[in-house]
Amino acid sequence: MKHVHHLLICMSLLIFTSCLDVVEVDLEEATPRVVFDASMKWENGEAANEQTIQVSRTRNFFEDEIDWVSGANIQIVDPNNTIVNFEEVEPGQYKTDAFLAEIDEEYQLEIELEGKSYQANEAFVNRTVIDTIVQGEDGGFTGGEKEVIVYFMDNVEEENYYLTRFNTDFLAFPEVDLQSDEFSNGNRMSSSFSDEDLESGDLVEIEFYSISKAYYDFLFKLLLQTGSAGGPFQAQPATVRGNIININDFDDYPFGYFSLSTFEKVSFTIE
After folding, report:
1. Would you give the DSSP letter of residue 64?
2. What is the distance between the alpha carbons of residues 149 and 140, in angstroms, rounded to a whole number?
3. Which of 1, 29, 114, 213 is the most buried (most CB within 10 A)?
């Protein structure tokens, strides 16, 4: 009987040990691409002269550290053909304090990096401002959640595109709402945020952007890709290209976008 008990123990150890075998997954490593974060933001009532462009490189799935890229020559040419240079103040961080913003004027981004030339064009659109912010109590799919509702008046004489970012302490990333006035031209529009964890006393930071159609289309596709879910056999999402191109090799494209956005930033405390 002792021998049988010993045999059972050995079999159990064998099974348990086999369950702990390490399975190595060979993940395909894509060729690293440069990433340009070139978002020029013009806050309502403030100067737009201080701007930052970040340059990095894509990294492997298990790498946590950002691979910042140094040595880029970056400039923006304004509507008067004035060149605004960006100086690298630390690895991958390029700044200027001489940027001048004008509504409806087009700007050209020019970057030289590692023997390659990149370029993009974008224009500031007319600013739309927040009308009113109110609190609701029937947010969420089933109702009953506290919500913040931002109202604004759309300009009937233009095609307008909007980005609203809501952020509060318990969110890892801001909640994003994209809108166009395709079916609401000239009407009062709204954007809202609700969450089951939203409580009295919580501070919600709101950034309301007026953006170009091209930037809206880019963000819309990007949100569709990052927000999509599927099983292991679902087709891989397509790469969402930005507006920054390699002027000598279209297929050797970077990631990122050159955007010019006017925005308003406000805070709202939940009652």
Report:
1. -
2. 12
3. 213
Section 106-121 average pLDDT:
97
Eight-class DSSP state of 124: B
For 219, the enclosing helix (H) or strand (E) is: helix 213-227
Per DSSP, the three-state class of 149 is strand
3-class DSSP state of 65 = coil
Q: Please name the residues in contact with 226: beta carbons below 8 A apart, sequence gap of 6 or more.
A: none
What is the DSSP code (8-state) at residue 61? T
Contact (CB, 8 A) for 104 and 124: yes
Q: pTM of the entire structure?
A: 0.83
Residue whose pair of structure tokens reads 């307008």 in the numeric block: 160
The amino acid at residue 45 is: G
Which amino acid is located at 116 in the chain?
K
Average pLDDT over residues 163-167: 96
Separation between Cα atoms, residue 45 and residue 18, nearest integer Å = 66
Q: Which helix (H) or strand (E) holds 226?
A: helix 213-227
Tell me what pLDDT residue 268 has.
97
Phi, psi of 68 (to 5 degrees): -70, 145
CA distance 156 to 160: 9
- Which residue, 168, 177, 172, 166, is CA-closest to 198? 168
| DSSP character string of 68-106 | E----EEEEE-TTS-EEEEEEEETTEEEES-----BT-E
User: Above pLDDT 70, what percent of the chain?
Assistant: 83
Residue showing tokens 């501070």: 203
Mean pLDDT of 176-199: 95
Beta bridge partners of 139: 145
- Point out the least confidently predicted range of 34-48, 49-63, 160-174, 190-204: 49-63
